[in-house]
């Protein structure tokens, strides 16, 4: 005789779930759709009309260039910094015609300093006339011709409470390059 087929066990029934209580998110109203909500205190990060003026753009470009140069010096990467400069380059009281000459001199100077203990706190970018009003004339050791400073900008870096200055001049291609440094 053949055994009788077994009855299939009843399928387990899922436990009843509670009805959802949270409402789905409301879509944004047309007035805010496509805008980015900035956190508290971040509204100032939007560019103003002044930031988009030719002077504001120059200030921003010079600030970025100066940050790169200061950070390169602090990390000892003089060779990369030297490619971004305009020649002849004035380092304190000495003038250098080529990047190689400048790199050799700057590396010697930096070896004598503990740049690992120096912090770049801030950079202030000013047209040369504003810099002179605020901080005084550039040091005479830079040997600058006052008549040639019309379109010159200064990037004043705060290196652990010590001022260091790159002077920048614009190029016909609308880029800015440092041509002098003093600290």
Give the total of beta strands. Answer: 6
CATH architectural arrangement:
Roll
Content of β-strand:
15-25%
Instruction: Describe the strand arrangement of the main beta sheet, using strand numbers.
Output: 2-1-6-5-4-3
Helix content: 25-40%
| Overall geometric form | globular
Coarse structural class: alpha+beta
Low-pLDDT residue spans: 29-44
Supply the number of structural domains.
Answer: 1
In round numbers, the mean pLDDT is 78
Region (Disordered): 1-54
Biased composition (Low complexity): 1-10
Biased composition (Pro residues): 11-30
Protein traits:
alpha+beta; 4 helices; 23% strand
Q: SSE layout and pairings?
A:
Blueprint: H1 54-74, H2 78-82, E1 85-91, E2 94-96, H3 99-111, E3 120-127, H4 128-135, E4 152-159, E5 162-170, E6 176-182
Parallel strand pairs: 1-6
Antiparallel strand pairs: 1-2, 3-4, 4-5, 5-6
